Amino acid sequence: MAANTEDFVIVGAQSSDANEHISKPALSFWQDAWRRLKLNKLAVISMWFLIFILAFAVVSNIFVPQKAANAFNSDKVGVYKNLPPNSGLPIPGWDGKIKAPGDTTVTDVYASQGVPDGERFILGTDNIGRSVAKRVIVGLRISLLVAIVATLIDLVIGVAYGVFSGWKGGWVDNVMQRIIEILSSIPNLIIVTMLGLLLGSGILSIILAIAMTGWLSMARQVRNMTLSLKERDYVLAAKTLGESSSKIAVKHLIPNMAGTIIVQIMMTVPSAIMFEAVLSAINLGVKPPTASLGSLISDAQAMLQFYPYQVLIPSAMLVLISLAFILLGDGLRDAFDPRASED
Amino acid sequence: MTEEAPKKLVELRDLQLYFNQGKANEVRAIDHVSFDIYEGEIFGLVGESGSGKTTIGRTILKIYEQTAGDILFQGKDVTHLKGKQLAEFRKDAQMIFQDPQASLNGRMKVRDIIAEGIDVNKLASSKAERDQKVQELLDLVGLNKDHATRYPHEFSGGQRQRIGIARALAVDPKFIIADEPISALDVSIQAQVVNLMKELQKKHSLTYLFIAHDLSMVKYISDRIGVMHWGKLLEIGSADAVYNHPLHPYTKSLLSAIPVPDPEVEKARQHLEYDTSIETDGKTREMIEVNPGHFVLATPEEAAQYQAQQV
Lengths: 343, 311
Prior knowledge:
The complex is a heterodimer.
Chain A: H1 17-20, H2 29-38, H3 41-63, H4 66-70, H5 77-80, E1 97-98, E2 107-108, H6 109-112, H7 132-168, H8 170-185, H9 188-199, H10 203-213, H11 216-229, H12 233-240, H13 245-256, H14 258-281, H15 293-300, H16 309-336, H17 338-341
Antiparallel strand pairs in A: 1-2
Chain B: E1 8-19, E2 27-38, E3 42-47, H1 53-60, E4 68-73, E5 76-77, H2 83-92, E6 93-96, H3 110-120, H4 127-140, H5 157-169, E7 175-179, H6 187-204, E8 207-211, H7 215-221, E9 224-229, E10 232-238, H8 239-244, H9 249-256, H10 263-268, H11 277-280, E11 286-291, E12 294-298, H12 300-310
Parallel strand pairs in B: 3-8, 3-9, 6-7, 7-8
Antiparallel strand pairs in B: 1-2, 1-4, 4-5, 9-10, 10-12, 11-12
Helix pairs in contact in B: 3-4, 3-5, 4-5, 5-6
InterPro entries (chain A): BP-dependent_transpt_permease, MetI-like, MetI-like_sf, OppC_N
Transmembrane segments (chain A): 42-64, 144-164, 189-216, 261-286, 306-329
Subcellular location (chain A): Cell membrane
């Protein structure tokens, strides 16, 4: 009646090469994502900015050691203190002249304080005569160090914890998720204060505080992704082929959530940088005389009306870096979005 | 075929799989199912969505753990295999999945997808040998060699399904569970894949468990058919017997639902409603052999009735 063997004619499997040929160039997932990321100008600019800043922070270690940024000549504080930014070019606001509040004329501070001729500070000096440029560079390094540590912890602890919890499921998952909930219910500030009491405030206690709590949201996201991915047919296929759990995680689960992981990192990093800045601003962070962007801002805020550049320069740096991370994260999310990539 | 090759490859004995056992939302996905699959045959399993066909397939491959009952493969119990023996079993029994899009990892090249089984079981000693094997498998399913370096999303549904078939064949299995391998493909491609599967079966003397809900396709490919509903196996028999002389009312209802590509006949076709009370009345029913090789789930009285209807 409906289906007889004779009714079917083989049309497919032996068809010509031309029929099977794919002329489109072979693009891997990453190449495809890169192609889409390139379309987003802001994300590309942010990416180059971050690459530049990172390279700069690394290279600057040679030229601007921590000591040079902290040192000042106590005999000549009067000469070097609070010098405005001076580019050496006649650019208004960047020529070493400043109009003090209440004054009607601008004064050349370099001349009036008797700074030797030819000596300039591109970003000015602070209230005891230290170069703001050098201190911002050192502060930048600390912020980026925090960013890198936060990334590593997110990647190593967050991803591993999430995959394990999601993959095992059952009571293991239950216990692991409750642990996350307990950890995330402790306010960060309390952890830092405790660590500060234990270890003394400093970069180590900030990093430990981030290590203890920074990976929680990553672990949650990865666990959720794992729960949905582990029911996918290709994971079942790998299971029926006898692939071990750890191989399945590395070959199938993590590559398929790479987008989520990267975007999550891009969101964690600015919050970690901000966290450090806030802690330093309330004196729970790096100890003076070490500079961080946060401590620079808090040190200078008393003088905001007189020497606004001392606050604005580190603040601008902080905002630019965070903004670049967020914009790049946004671009990456669009580039990785599987729904957008379907045809 | 059944008569000439009576050697059993897979035996299911009173298999049960209950989800959420003992709770209010208990689901009897597989409810006392027993059947045999003989070596070299294609056993078709049909039934509506949610009737437990796929669950049976996955339970045989030990993706799910059964609640009770045994699964025998080549006479050996595979339900409690561990370690090396389990790896051996995995090499002999493979699966083709329903959705070719979902069953291929989009982050892996076709070569690595196909070679996954080769890598896991260390079937190739060198990279050249591995590539060689992938090449052979691609040829086998009718794909070009330059397809090996491409990603799944670049292929059509039929091509992807053939990649899935190549992956299953990579470990040289004896038994393949085809879990609705054609239901996600459009009709013009279905024949392509089914014919490829038939051809491979002859070449490699494979045994299939062919799960589907398309009765005409199952009739075309299968030697024997089992009909499932609500986790129970209702009827087993040779493809011709089940298709042309159905016994169980559910099978009759299923068959009456097949559209006929002839407007005159189609107009006259009447769909038989299935009265589920035959399964919910609480009587104990067993598989009873009404005709040689044709079993139906029934009480003795019903069996007698079925017998009488035929004559």
